[in-house]
Amino acid sequence: YPFVTVISANENLGFGHGHNQLLMNATQEYGFICNPDILVTKESIEGLLKRIQENEAAVVVPQVLNEDGSIQYLVRKRLAVFDYFLRFIPFHWVKKVFKKRLSAYECRDLPQDQTSYIRMGSGCFMLVDITRFKEIGGFDEQFFMYFEDNDLCLRYEKAGYRILYTPFEKVVHLYGKGAHRSAKLFLVFMHSMMKFFNKWGWRLF
Q1: Burial environment of residue 114 by CB neighbours within 10 A (0 to 12, 13 to 18, 19 or more)
Q2: Which residue from 203, 111, 109, 115 is spatially nearest to 162, judged by alpha carbons?
Q3: 21 and 133 in contact (C-beta within 8 Å)?
Q4: Does the reported pTM lie above 0.90?
């Protein structure tokens, strides 16, 4: 593909670092932040581009689906240590007791028949205005993986920019839940979580 430019690196310095190498040096107006396990259609890409052009948004995030078509609830209004504890705990009865809290944490009441401005979207797939991405300094590279998208969204908010969620454009995320399955990735997750709360203030509950 003659229109593709490949930028290679000698080592993996993280999700944020990799995207910064592309987006902080890009001359285009818009760019995508994307996990490698995403399936997306041309129609969804065109729809997202139209949304960011027609709305006061620095970022647009689509509805994220599992392979079976069910929704992955990845939008967040707030982050607290207790909510992460609930997500990782294997006891179903505990989650049932705190069902209402988990539902609020996952923003399950977010309308699925209209677009909404949100606080934090998932970095598994985002369309960003590159000028504004550069203005806030791109990703904070202290986060190797996990929480870099939450940090990015809060810095957009701090700068006065808005994030738009659209349920009309969709992507499929082949979600592996690596931190749930791998002790190594769980340690990376915990390390990033400590960095995030140290930066933004600890909220235990």
Answers
A1: exposed
A2: 115
A3: no
A4: yes
pLDDT in tens, the chain (205 residues): 998 888 888 999 999 999 999 999 999 999 999 999 999 999 999 999 999 999 999 999 999 999 999 999 999 999 999 999 888 887 888 889 999 999 999 999 999 999 999 999 999 999 999 999 999 999 999 999 999 999 999 999 999 999 999 999 999 999 866 665 688 999 999 999 999 999 999 999 9
Residue type, 192: S
For the chain, which residues make up each domain, given as ranges?
A: 28-200
- Specify the residue for token string 């454009």: 169
Pair 123, 148: CB distance under 8 Å: yes
Please list, in sequence order, all residues whose beta carbon lies within 8 angstroms of the beta carbon of residue 113, skipping any fewer than 6 positions away.
Answer: 167
Q: Looking at domain 28-200, what is its CATH homologous superfamily?
A: Spore Coat Polysaccharide Biosynthesis Protein SpsA; Chain A (3.90.550.10)
Neighbouring-strand partners of residue 173: 38
Sort strands 163-173 and 59-65 into parallel, antiparallel or unpaired.
Answer: parallel
d(CA 19, CA 34) in angstroms, rounded, equals: 9
Q: Identify the three-state secondary structure at position 183.
A: helix
Residue with tokens 């690596």: 178
The DSSP symbol for 182 reads -
